[in-house]
Amino acid sequence: MNQRNNHRLVLFPLPFQGHMNPMLQLGRILYTRGFSITILHTNFNAPDPSSHPHFAFRSIANGLDRSEASTLDIPRLVSLLNARCASPFEECLREMMPSPGVDAVPVACLISDQLFSFMCGVAERLKVRALVLRTGGAASLYVYTILPVLKEKGYVPTDGSRSEEAVKEFPPLLVRDIPVVDSQKPEMMFRLFDNLVKVVKSSTGVIFNTFEELEHPALTSLREVLSVPVFPIGPFHKCCVTSSSSSLLAEDRSCISWLDEQPLKSVIYVSFGSSAAVSNAEILEIALGLADSQQPFLLVVRPGSVGDPEWPEKSPSHFLKALEGRGKIVKWAPQVEVLAHPAVGAFWTHNGWNSTVESISEGVPMLCMPCFADQGVNARYVSDVWGVGVHLNGGLERENIARAIKRVLVEREGEETRQRALVLKEKASGCLTPGGSSYRGLDGLVNHILRCDSEDRLSALEVSVNLCN
Questions:
Q1: CA 79 to CA 4: how far, in whole Å?
Q2: Are 13 and 31 in contact (CB under 8 A)?
Q3: How far is the C-alpha of 151 from the C-alpha of 155, rounded, in Å?
Q4: Among 135, 166, 265, 397, whose CB has the most other CB atoms within 10 angstroms?
Q5: Which residues contact 211 (CB under 8 A, 6 or more apart)?
Q6: Intervals of CATH 3.40.50.2000 along the chain
């Protein structure tokens, strides 16, 4: 463990699982480089301090009532968090700034989630440097930067649009891959995307949980468009030296011992992340498709993700029989460990960025079923650019599901996909070694933080000297 370098970083994660995980992982990475870490968080979906004993934690009130906090309308919830958190965030950060003459570890830098639109304004008022953590990929952020152009050309889809039309200005995307804009409140969605890009452009740099070998073209484009330093230092979870969990849900570790009993590369792991939900009709087709595939399966059914609370007890006997013989259901799984398990041969995923990077890092081919936000872009890159997965085309019908599982697990195409995935896995590992792209990126990030902090201290000293004179 490096000696503390007398510089404190304040990290401010968005309180959703897919945003909390990478922020806490980033905190662990920077802690190993000698920084003191304070996690400033909302009361809503607060992290567990006991899982991160080396960090300091400070909470702010978010002012959400129970109904607001439980909504599945993510854009509205993000909007509410921005409206309710701005003042308490600024007040808390102001309290953390050391007074003149007080012996305290100064705040060298603030690192905030990209979706907090008030962050850069607060940082500017308090004279704190602000970096942004992009919890998605580089390609999807580039799509957000050109969204006004795509909108002008009529590409941006509304609810229900599944057009297979190619986006000529940005291959290999199809119209269906572009983030869907809710037809009932399009301005809220466009404002959310616009604010995200503005926050990044107003920051002193943006950190990515990706690596150059994976997204070099998109990163190059972003460096030109954003005009701020870009630091790809992922995969985050492979950098972390501790095994502490940042999951907001209890992980069922019984699935690991179950996997120990399965044949090598035989299991299809199925998880649609921490936000997606499926209807009763869809979960029925998923269950029967898994049963008909004749392959072992590990299925994650998060509480609240299925409409029927009595599922799977009311499932068809065909599925329940398969469940007894070669399947297992858990409410939440230790995903990184599952994907690293030798029994797992494929990952049926919603293609959230964390899941995508974790699967790539372990060389596990993907069966792609994007649901919303950046997932369509991620899935298109998985299938058409990196060639490490296939789309679940044809819809959620049991016959189609069974065919797709066999396609990625046992057929020749699946073996070819697995070979490409293993090559990408090696690149994901190599970039973290001394001299690798992410290793150099982390060095650059640390130097950037320290250099900015030194400039701030020198500027403050010059002001003090001028006042004395």
A1: 37
A2: no
A3: 6
A4: 135
A5: 232, 233, 234, 235, 427, 428, 431, 437, 438, 441
A6: 8-245+434-468, 254-429
10-residue mean pLDDT profile of the chain (469 residues): values are 73 95 96 95 92 94 79 82 94 82 74 95 93 97 93 76 83 88 69 92 97 98 96 93 71 96 97 86 92 95 82 81 89 96 97 97 96 92 97 88 94 93 97 97 96 61 39
Residue 11: closest CA among 114, 87, 142: 114
In contact, 346 and 352? CB cutoff 8 Å: no
Note the CATH architecture for domain 254-429. 3-Layer(aba) Sandwich (3.40)
Which CATH homologous superfamily contains domain 8-245+434-468?
Answer: Glycogen Phosphorylase B; (3.40.50.2000)
| The model's pTM | 0.92
Per-residue pLDDT tens digits for 238-263: 986 555 667 878 899 999 999 999 99
| Interatomic CA distance for residues 153 and 203, integer angstroms | 29
The dihedrals phi and psi of 225, each to the nearest 5 degrees, come to -75, -40
Query: Which residue, among 107, 94, 123, has the nearest Cα to 56 in the 3D structure?
Result: 107
